[in-house]
Design a protein that fits this description.
Elements lengths: L3 E5 L9 H9 L3 E7 L11 H20 L4 E5 L2 H12 L3 E5 L4 H16 L3 E5 L21 H10 L36 H8 L4 H15 L3 H4 L12 H5 L5 H15 L2 H26 L21 H9 L5 H13 L4 H14 L4 H11 L5 H12 L14 H8 L4 H6 L8 H4 L7 H6 L15 H14 L3
Parallel strand pairs: 1-2, 1-4, 2-3, 4-5
The chain binds a DNA duplex through helix 5, helix 14 and helix 21.
Length: 479
DNA sequence: TTTTGAGTTGTTCGA
DNA sequence: GTCGAACAACTCAAA
């Protein structure tokens, strides 16, 4: 029997993996392939933090496959060539994969599909990383959605997503030259300790994703509707990187959450559960937007923003990246990002608003930094969210919605424990002044061993002045 | 086709 | 401290 290639991409799991399930049902020997393609002619190649995550995930997937008697075959190179080569090498007569929705991948995969079919191979692609395909959502007039709430209603109206399928228990593997091992992939930057703190913060892989979901449903979901906004607490699902790499699927999350709500039959948990499912739907919405507006990562949806008064100022950008803006809530977030590859969602919004509005830096600069430093970097969510925050995307977000970093800090990190964790040089400062140290009397600063401009920076911009400047810039492109 | 209601996440000011 | 109004006006989606 000729082998079938199962091409893994952003679906690094065995359960609820339609391509793998279909391959298993066919009963022929498989080659489980992952291709690392760092070709520079593809836009948005993996960021540094994503590579750190990916390395551990590939290792985990390989272990799971070994338990089934096989292993993961990894190849490096231009995707098209690599697959062709493997087809020749193994004599495979079929290739299966689960779909990706990044514009450049759609184009590439379509080309691969037609080329392989022209050679007489059987090629099938499946739906694994969304609850419904982006083209399955339509308004009454047949257009794509541009507003979340109607999109959400349409998702709900479709009823329950398909139940996830279990992992295949039986697979046969076609023997194949395994290619490079993980270390040869160079997924970790040489001579840098930076990945270590990220590695210490996470346990990637399918089984860890499942555990994380269980832990969240058990301990985080209760109170989620209100407490998910608190970076000082642990009510986030922390599933975003698992979702991005497909170590868990939205269908699995949906089903588990609904069962949890049903098991407890309690109105307050229902509210929390639906609030969580809405967040899952936001991811789906971002994919819907990216599919229908493929320029989303690069071009402002609202073309008026082409003439917006962005400022070129590397010092601003660099201070923001390093968490040295002098605004503790922002700095805490940016340092959490650097150290863990992840930032709490509320803080992401405030930090992104600060970069684009207080510092008037182009939204794509923040987008690129997040792309490189987030372990959950996802083209759809990242692009859509930066456009949303900076006001040039979808949603009629009023331009005067400018987050006040002190107020946000007081509201969502009331005793300052989040700031203290990530900005330790302020850890002796009383919570009263923690979100605005420059307002503390000098005696208080002295007691806390804080010297502004020395141990911690002065605010890089004055909030009130920066806010007015941003409002002025937004007003200027209104007409 | 036209009309109508609504749109993730906020802040400031003044009473 | 709390509360409501103002911040503007536009586009989307459905009736």
């Amino acid at each position: 029997m000729k082998p079938l290639i199962v091409w893994f991409r952003q679906d690094l799991r065995l359960a609820d993996n339609p391509a793998l399930t279909a391959a298993s049902a066919k009963g022929c020997p498989i080659v489980a392939l992952y291709v690392l393609d760092e070709n520079k002619d593809m836009p948005w190649t993996l960021g540094a933090a994503s590579k750190v995550w990916l390395r551990a995930s590939l290792q985990s997937l390989d272990r799971s496959l070994k338990q089934l008697g096989g292993s993961l075959t990894i190849r490096i190179g231009r995707t098209q060539d690599t697959i062709n080569q493997l087809v020749n090498e193994t004599g495979a007569n079929a290739v299966y994969w689960n779909r990706c929705y990044e514009p450049s991948f759609i184009e590439r995969d379509a080309a691969i599909k037609s080329e392989l079919k022209a050679y007489g191979l059987e090629v099938q692609s499946f739906s694994a990383s969304l609850m419904y395909e982006p083209w399955e959502y339509k308004t009454r007039t047949g257009t794509p959605f541009k507003v979340f709430t109607p999109f959400w209603k349409s998702l709900i109206a479709k009823g329950k997503p398909t139940d996830p399928t279990p992992a295949p228990t039986r697979l046969t593997f076609h023997p194949v030259n395994q290619g490079p091992n993980l270390d040869n992939l160079r997924l970790l930057p040489p001579k840098s300790d930076w990945p270590k703190s990220i590695q210490a913060s996470w346990s990637p892989g399918e089984s860890n994703g499942k555990n994380q979901l269980c832990r969240f449903l058990d301990q985080g979901l209760g109170g989620y509707a209100d407490l998910r906004d608190r970076p000082d607490l642990s009510h986030c699902s922390s599933l975003s990187p698992f979702l991005h790499f497909g170590e868990i699927s939205p269908r699995q999350i949906w089903q588990a959450t609904v069962s949890q709500m049903a098991a407890f039959r309690n109105g307050s948990l229902d509210r929390d559960g639906w609030a969580f499912l809405r967040e899952i739907a936001w991811r789906e919405f971002s994919y819907h937007l990216l599919f229908h507006f493929p320029e989303l990562p690069d071009v402002a949806w609202n073309r008026k923003f082409n003439s917006f008064g962005w400022i070129e100022d590397h010092k601003f950008l660099s201070a923001w990246q390093k968490g040295q803006t002098g605004y503790p809530f922002i700095d805490a977030g940016m340092r959490q990002l650097w150290h863990t590859g992840w930032m709490h969602n509320r803080v992401r919004m405030v930090a992104a608003s600060f970069l684009t509005k207080h510092l008037l830096q182009h939204w794509t600069k923040g987008e690129k930094w997040f792309w490189d430093t987030l372990v959950d970097a996802d083209l759809a969510s990242n692009s859509a969210s930066w456009q949303w925050v900076s006001g040039c995307g979808f949603d009629a977000s009023p331009y005067f919605r400018i987050f006040n970093p002190m107020l946000q800090g007081q509201k969502f990190d009331p005793d300052g424990s989040y700031v203290k964790q990530w900005v330790p040089e302020l850890s002796n400062l009383s919570s009263k002044y923690l979100h605005a140290p420059w307002e503390a009397p000098s005696s208080v600063l002295a007691t806390a061993k804080v010297t502004l401009g020395k141990t911690y920076p002065h605010p890089i911009v004055d909030h009130k002045a920066a806010r007015l400047r941003a409002l002025e810039a937004y007003r200027a492109i209104k007409t």
